[in-house]
Amino acid sequence: MDVRFDSGSRRLVLIDIENVAGGLVCSEETAEHARGSIAQAVGTHPMDQVVVATCHKGYQHVAWCWPKARRLVRSGPDGADLELLDVLQENVPDHFRHVVLVSGDGIFTDAVTELGSRGVRVTVAARRGRLSKRLRLAAAEVVYLNGIWSSERRVG
Questions:
Q1: What residues contact 12, with CB distance under 8 A and at least 6 apart?
Q2: pTM
Q3: How far is CA 35 from the centre of its chain?
């Protein structure tokens, strides 16, 4: 089955943008590069419900690149991850047959396993070398993001 789009359903696409960028998103260029890599790896479709999570420092850059997405903000350790985990508690199986999780973080393993047990196909898209082994095993399929990434960590 093509990961890019299953015409029989809408997809929920959850994006941990800091995981994709390798750190804090400090520019619109980095956010746009991430968006392009995600689109290349998993495709895009107008019916997708896209959710992008970031910390408050990266929000302004992320917001410009995803104007139609549901944008979530939480700072602190694992803030973006926790926001996306909250979304996964919103009775996803009643609304979606396919979830695309763009993150390699192992914190999502239990939620991905639960979705799979409830009949939801979960595709994980992650950077090579940045995918938790447990998450890889829990996902129905894995795709890797292309692109050259540099961490843009900035204090302040």
A1: 48, 49, 51, 87, 92, 95, 96, 98, 99, 100
A2: 0.86
A3: 10
Contact 137/111 with Cβ under 8 angstroms?
Answer: no
Contact 4, 125 (CB under 8 A): no
Instruction: Give the residue with greater pLDDT, 117 vs 57.
Output: 117
Give the mean pLDDT of 114-127. Answer: 96
Q: Residue 26: what residue type?
A: C
d(CA 11, CA 130): 23
Token pair for 75: 């700072």
pLDDT of residue 8: 52
* Whether residue 151 has pLDDT greater than 60: no
How long, in residues, is the chain? 156
